[in-house]
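Q: I have 329 residues here and want to know how they pack in 3D. Can you give me a structure?
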Amino acid sequence: MKYRRLGRSGLQVSELSIGTMNFGGPTNETDSFSIIDTALEAGINLFDCADVYADGASEKIVGKALLRDGKRKNVIITTKAFLPTGEHPNDRGNSRHHLIHACEKSLGRLNTDYIDIFFLHRTDWNVPQEETLSALDYLVTKGYVRYVACSTHPPWRTVEALHIAEKYRYPKFICEQPPYNLLDRRIENEIVPMCRQYDLGIMTWSPLAQGMLAGRYRSEKDIPEGSRASQKAIYAERITDGGIAAARNMDALARQKEISLPTLAVSWVLHQPGVSSVIIGPRTEEHLGMLLPSVDLELTRADLETCDTIVPPGSYVSNHFNTAGWRMP
């Protein structure tokens, strides 16, 4: 495993990180433990969680696994808050009330004294950023959180937060976590340049474009039973015939190189400027084994240029920002 610096933090993070959304859902506790153990053996030191994954069960599994292994101090745990966790109006968002409560709950589920990186899962247009950042400052001062970050934020909103943090001496974001894959390259237009200018790390999610870059879909109307696209309409919106056609073209390149399409897709993200770590969300140990070789794959300039002809830089054929609410197609 190779490691890269995560923005202004100085943290060294593995090029692959484990997304835990499947833990406690389609992946049971025993299989989740196996994935975590295999990841640790491979040198992965970054586990990406959120309070809403499997209604909190995912965090419990990660906490239990690391306590069992005695390897908590060797890994970096992230978690996130913003999305609704209850029916009451204050059980969501980036208010001081919700963020502090959410962090305390995550600490308990993860069975840890601190969270390495605490993410704002999305931006909150209804709460002044001064309030949000003051809450994050409180969590860092209390020792509950070591670093703060943002996920799928508008770049101008991130820069505004950096300036507010500078003014009030609040902790600054160390990285952004946006969607990024060959089928949705829009972060190259503004988010990547912003992160590189302000020395923010980039942890990317959905490198397989929700399974399209794993060859799982044949058409946007033919959704396999049990797939994520079959579970929510907002996921189904990402499956497009244009994306499937692009995936087939990328698969042709993968076959030429005698590698799997998922391996090529993840490696492509790792070859892009500014990327610190790619979040993979294996549902099985077999899936993880398929993706681990991506860190050793060397793509040539010709390979990357071929990918640019499939989906040009800065463009998209599948909208992975459709949970953000601020970037319209």
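Q: Anything worth noting?
A: The chain has eleven helices and ten strands. The mean pLDDT is 96.
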